[in-house]
């Protein structure tokens, strides 16, 4: 079937796209901030709340558990729209951030950070689906990749802010944790007035509203004819579609590579200062050391933003996982140095992690159609956080029982598993329209009314 030009896929990159990318990056920024700021707060929380390794692991993993739960909200994003929850989830985040200031026990902190994670997890399918559905195809990889750059910006800022705020005094951890409310309030104000996705509106049969959004964003001459896709509603929103013929392989690919990428990564970011202490690095200023490592992850994303189109999605992620495995392997094999090898391990792992980072939200948004796009982002996020929760929970236990070397060797095995998944399952969607990239894998299962 011949597909003519689509105004969304072929639009010129504009100020609207820049603003939408910034607003949609708010969730990942806060994810990085919230998951990393706890690492600095632990310096004071652990003795004040008398936390053992079990409670440290549970609190460290609590936001990840919440993200796992929040990922299921992707279904409601597909049912009721991207715009509806685009602001509401951050209001919940603001309230939970402030409540952290008043906790008195470990279980209270665990519960509140669980709620924080739910709000962040809910934002992933909302914001990334909206961004993907407005993105021109030539800029889609970079626009969605920038959201992961925002994660590492949030993480780096958190370590620096947390280290500076420790000077407040013995109760500084309360202010440190509550500080996530500040960027959340700013983002709520910025997001007001963001339009609904015309692809989603059209898929729901709301043609007049879809055309109104097109005119608002692209000018008064824009019309539904510019979408170049049949305007009838397509398939139903359903979790089962992700595990049926045509999409099961894609669901497994995204969920498993995502899990292999974030399981060791989140553990390192959450317990960065403790990990650096095991390597005898940045003694007395581990927060700044963790900020440097987070900044390395940020730098690693930048080449991937350019290579995602030039090298191609499949080759880039395979090469990236191979490089990440080598980096973590160095950290596991040489826990006592020499220092040059330890630093090389961190640098190699961080620089090659850019490929999977860029693909984590690009892949599910490209590989699934409009009616299940938010659901797919949510479910694959859930799969990834399942591994991340266990990795973060077990990391402090592994450090205390086996030491840094064996713990990092386990992380290397997980990363190598991601390499195998990508070799066996990774598809190629470079330079395809969103419509073409999201077509089912099996020709025999095509939708009669494909999603816009």
Give structural notes.
It is a single chain. The chain is mainly alpha-helical. The chain has helices at 15-24, 26-48, 53-70, 74-80, 84-99, 106-134, 140-165, 172-178, 181-191, 198-203, 207-218, 248-270, 272-278, 286-310, 313-333, 339-352, 354-367, 370-401, 404-425, 434-437. The chain has one domain: Up-down Bundle (Growth Hormone, Chain: A). The protein is built from 20 helices and no strands. Residues 443-451 have low confidence and may be disordered. The chain crosses the membrane at residues 20-43, 55-77, 84-103, 109-132, 144-166, 172-190, 251-273, 285-308, 315-334, 340-363, 375-395, 407-426. Its main location: membrane.
Descriptors:
single chain, mainly alpha, globular, Sugar_transporter_CS, transmembrane helix, Growth Hormone, Chain: A, MFS_dom, 452 residues
Stretches with pLDDT under 50, minimum 5 residues: 443-451
Strand content: under 5%
Count all strands and give the number: 0
User: How big is the Rg?
Assistant: 21 Å
Order of helices and strands: HHHHHHHHHHHHHHHHHHHH
Q: What is the CATH topology assignment?
A: Growth Hormone, Chain: A
Protein structure class: mainly alpha
Mean pLDDT, nearest integer? 81
The CA-CA distance between the termini, in Å, is 14 Å
* CATH homologous superfamily (4th level) name: MFS general substrate transporter like domains
CATH architecture descriptor text: Up-down Bundle
Gross morphology is: globular
Into how many domains do the coordinates divide? 1
Total number of helices? 20
Q: What share of the residues lie within helices? A: over 70%
CATH class: Mainly Alpha
> Biggest β-sheet, characterized?
none
Protein name: MFS transporter
Keywords: Membrane, Transmembrane, Transmembrane helix, Transport
Transmembrane segments: 20-43, 55-77, 84-103, 109-132, 144-166, 172-190, 251-273, 285-308, 315-334, 340-363, 375-395, 407-426
Domain Major facilitator superfamily (MFS) profile: 20-430
